Amino acid sequence: MEYLSIVFQEVYKILFLLVPVLVSVAMIVWLDRRVWAFVQKRQGPNVVGPFGLLQSLADALKYIFKEIIIPSSSNKVIFILAPIVTMTLALIAWAVIPFSATQVLADINVGILYLFAVSSLGVYGIIMGGWASNSKYPFLGAIRSAAQMVSYEVSIGVIIINVLLCVGSLNLNDIVIAQQNMWFVIPLFPMFVIFFISALAETNRPPFDLPEAEAELVAGYQTEYSGMMYAMFWLGEYANILLMCAMGAILFLGGWMSPIDVYPFTLVPGAIWLILKILLLFILFALVKAIVPRYRYDQLMRLGWKVFLPLSLIWVVLTASYLLYFNLLPVN
Amino acid sequence: MIAHAIFFYTFSIIAVVSAIMVTASKNTVHSVFFLILDFISISCLFIMIGAEFLGMIMLIVYVGAVAVLFLFVVMMLNVAQQKNQWFAGQQSSKHIPVGLIISTLIFVEVIIVIGGWKYKPEIFDINNSIAQTSISNTHSLGQILYTDYIHVFQISGMILLVAMVGAIVLTFRQRSGVKRQSYIKQISRERAEGVEVLEVQSNKGVKIDD
Question: Would you tell me how many other CB atoms lie within 10 Å of the CB of residue B70?
Answer without folding.
Answer: 17
